[in-house]
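=== RUN LOG ===
request id: a7f3
mode: sequence -> structure
chains: 1
length: 492
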Amino acid sequence: MKNLVTRGEIVMPLLVRKILLMTKLTVLFLLLGFMQVSATSRAQSTISVHFEKTKIAKALRHLEKESKYIFYYNNNTLEDLPRINLEIKDGQLSEVLDSISKALNINFTILDNNLIVVNKPNESLFVQDVSGQIVDAEGNPLVGVTIKVKGTNTGTVTDVDGNYSLEGVPEDATLVVSYVGFETKEVPLNGKNELNITLTPGSKNLDELVVVGYGTQKKKEITSAIANVDAKDFNKGGVTSPMDLIQGKVAGLTVTNASRGNPNASASIQLRGITSITGDLAPLIVINGIPGGNLDMIQQDDIKSISVLKDGSAAAIYGTRANGGVILVTTKKGKSGAPKFEYSTYFKHADVAKRPNNLSASEYRNLMDKGIVPESNDYGATTDLYDSLLNKNNLTQYHYFSATGGSKNTNYRASLYYSDKQGIAKQNSREEFGGRININQTGLQDRLTIQMNLAANVNNANLLGGSDADFEQAVQWNPTAPIHDPDGYGGF
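=== RESULT ===
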């Protein structure tokens, strides 16, 4: 009995092992057969396409649906490619990709997991985002450093903390870092996502020649003669005049607006002092290269930068009109990329911070009681002409909307605005609306550039009130004299 039991214990495990082995082999053969059928089915599948002036991105989406492959690409890679015309009936995917590759000069690389990478010749297959900080030799952050991807137009500048960021940079790209007064540096990316760079001073940069109109000067000789203020450095808040944006930003430039509460008053600008006894002392205004522009027709959100030319070299370009200096205003232009929309607004209310200390009616009559003022000056009324001139419920509002976008060769920027400026005085306001359009077209392999600028402004100005003479008269007005005279013309 013991021997029989022992044989049973030995025979049963052997039988189980044989059954398990046969099961595994059966499953393996079934899997191999399924994979072979699947591969055969995929290899034998055909695709029919009919592309007529079709964008490549749309064509790739169609191929994804038909072939079950997924296409990986950078949007910048496909942005400038022409539309494709292609018709293939019952063809293989490889045949379709070869035709597109030859027509558009792009490459298709098939990877695992049904992934196809699209790229141009000599272009990295993968891109990444890069960020970092630019500092000097002592570790101080540098503001306004230019960082560009070598061989492209992609670039940015550092912020107030010296930080920068770039999107969609090829992993094998080289960054070109430049800054005034420092050596230009080229740094290979080598697949890094974060790249901190230290710049070293370059004294030789001060010996570089700069064109200044009638000739050239060394950069170190004109550092105090030319000032440039970008939009990010403008004074914040709502302004009456665009020159208020750079008030206090440029040495030697005086911007005053005695009637700041008057929306119809322009700022007074003086740059080079008194240059003429009878001529105009204000500097010449040049907007987008056109002399003689009107600053009041430009909205603060349309301005990209304001440059101030303070030395005499400006007269070599603009003649005697530039005796008082030149102010160059550059408006924003279109940029390539996805459509971008911006909206800005502000509301403003004005009050008198400190009014003149003139006599009230009761104080004036007290002087009569003391015999200082003749009683014949009492006209029987109690008035405060200064207070009557004020618009205490004034409210200024401003609305601005812009849209920009386009491709590398064709881009646009359009803006619309509406403003209702209420003065601090009654019958003193300015309502206006308008817009600006900029279109840029580049062709002939970047040898020809066509630019169109169109601006429109419609305004309705109420100039009845807000005069300085009105408030001067209000201070001198007899507080016992009535403002309205029923027997007078118009009741005044």
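=== NOTES ===
The chain is about 20% helix and 35% strand.
The mean pLDDT is 80.
=== END ===
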